[in-house]
Amino acid sequence: MKSYFIRTFGCQMNKHDSERIAGLLESAGYVPACGPDVADVIVFNTCCVRETADERLYGQVSSLKALKTGGRPDVLIAVGGCVGQRDGEAVLARAAHVDVVFGTHNIHELPALLDAAESGRPSVSILEAGETFASDLPQVREKPWHAWVPVTVGCDNHCAYCIVPSVRGPERSRPMEDVVAEVTTLVADGVVEVTLLGQNVNSYGRDRYGKPRFSELLRAVADTGVSRLRFATSHPKDISDETIAAMADLPAVMPYLHLPVQHGSNDILKAMRRGYTREEYLLRVGKLRDAIPDVALSTDIIVGFPGETEADFAATLDLVERVAFDHAFTFIYSAREGTPAAALADTVPREVAQERFDRLAALVRNLSYASNTREVGSFRECLIGGASRRDSAVLGARTPHNRLVHLPLPTGESAAGLAGTTRLVRITAAHPWFLSGEFADDSR
Ligand code: SAH
Ligand code: SF4
Ligand code: F3S
Asked: Residue 167: which of 13, 335, 20 has the closest Cα?
């Protein structure tokens, strides 16, 4: 029996796609391998959102050349996802030992492409647009109790720095009844947490129904009885009062929102084509906190966008401090060929961008630590994820606000047995990026 190993880069949409790739390969008779060294097929599901993602991929792919020349000539290497979609045939020019290249719209073709590559010739297939949603394919969930459920694919925004619309295509929404039917099946299958996915979930339905219907979708999905409902990503220009109200009303919707701001300066937000001002962003945050006072907020921020002055950057620091984000993902801008920003001349020198990035990262760390510190002494219903990667005697769990908690594994219990269960936890200590806790006495 042939075995496969998948390495996934990039966003949650790619994680979801990888679960479908695994499902497809298993239906085609493959079995999972415990590592790339022993697999018959190695699949790279790739990201190209930043230059570093590209570099990592090509670095890892080229290191596999040794596998082929060192006694395993038959191993097949497949590159799919966003780099596959963008580079197509050109992947072979950069890494001649790759056997299969596929894109974001034709995951379903992978088993056939692998068969074709067995003859020793590389097979490349890229579709310009997709007809099927990957969700219609079989899946093997990484965690049996959690499911990613795409509600839209692609993106209709044109953020000046972003490659995603060109590798994922225009936004397409799934029919609401399909999403609800899928979640109903998942719940019956034991899934306790569902994350609805889209590049901009708030515009869900615009292409299909003529107007956004995300708040209705949230209510319909919550009606399935799923215990924990999350969603990503929310675009600040499109998050509606109705969605905020649905978040506040529905107990299943977790009190956490990822709301990427990208920048704090209006000039840069305009150059980025984000479609909102910092004032509008702050207004949305105010509305959210009025409706859900303890809501946890995270964001994405880009430093060093072309033309960014020290004053612009100071506006980012100021906004971050004002909102007091619980967490932020920070990135140094990298030009992506073919995006409008790649043509902008006034680039920020690398050292300047790095120095600003370090200042922002220090602020983010302090805010995250402060936010975690406020949790100490609280009791939270935590969803146990399983053993920590570093220490098998430690469990990782998530609070409703999406904070990571480390807990000692109680004697006599197994991490695998506890994974996917929800338990009351007392938070005992704060660290910058996680909390420590212990199982609370349920009779407290
Ligand atoms: N659809 C989501 C996120 C898409 S990509 C959204 O609209 O927010 C994830 C993050 O990568 C972005 O939020 C942005 O912060 C970052 N990013 C995207 N393109 C980038 C680039 N060219 N350079 C640096 N960071 C980038
Ligand atoms: Fe990229 Fe903007 Fe679309 Fe997000 S909303 S995927 S940043 S174009
Ligand atoms: Fe990356 Fe593609 Fe997602 S470029 S961020 S994996 S949509």
From this structure: 13
Query: What would the mean pLDDT of 279-285 be, rounded to a whole number?
Result: 98
Name the token pair of 60. 């890892």
Q: How much distance in Å is there from the Cα of 162 to the middle of ligand 1?
A: 6
Q: What is 143-254's CATH topology?
A: Transcription Regulator spoIIAA (3.30.750)
- Nearest listed ligand to the Cα of residue 258: 1
- Percent of the chain past pLDDT 90, that is, above it, reads 89
Q: What is the structure's pLDDT at 386? A: 92
**In this structure, what are the phi and psi dihedrals at residue 290, rounded to the nearest 5 degrees?**
-65, -40
Q: Angle at which helices 176-188 and 214-222 pack, to 10 degrees?
A: 30
Measured from the alpha carbon of residue 167, the closest ligand is 3
* CA proximity to 256, closest of 295, 302, 198: 295
Nearest Cα residue to atom 7 of ligand 3: 164
Spatial neighbors of 103 by CB under 8 A, at least 6 apart, are: 80, 81, 84, 85, 88, 125, 126, 127, 167
CB of 13 sitting under 6 A from ligand 3: yes
Pick from 183, 164, 166: which is nearest to 174 by CA? 183
Q: Do domains 3-125 and 379-439 have the same CATH topology?
A: no
In words, the CATH class of domain 379-439 is mainly beta
Q: How far is the CA of 49 from the centre of ligand 1 (A)?
A: 7
Q: What is the pLDDT of residue 119?
A: 85
C-alpha–C-alpha distance, residues 302 and 321, integer Å: 16
CATH superfamily of 3-125: Methylthiotransferase, N-terminal domain (3.40.50.12160)
Residue-wise pLDDT for 175-219, tens only, equals 999 999 999 999 999 999 999 999 999 999 999 999 999 999 999
Q: Which residue has the higher pLDDT, 96 or 278?
A: 278
Q: If you average pLDDT over residues 21-42, what whole number do you get?
A: 96
- Structural tokens at position 180: 């609800």
SS3 187: helix
In this structure, the residues whose C-beta lies within 6 A of any atom of ligand 1 are 49-50, 161-162, 164, 199-200, 233, 235, 260, 262, 300, 302, 331, 333-334, 336
In this structure, the number of other CB atoms found within 10 A of the CB of residue 16 comes to: 23
Q: Which residue's CA lies nearest to atom 5 of ligand 1?
A: 49
Average pLDDT estimate for 416-443: 92
- 98-145 pLDDT, tens digit each: 999 999 999 999 999 999 999 888 899 999 887 667 777 899 999 999
For the chain, which residues make up each domain, given as ranges?
3-125, 143-254, 256-279+288-374, 379-439
User: Which amino acid makes up residue 348?
Assistant: V
- Say yes or no: domain 256-279+288-374 is CATH 3.30.750.200: yes
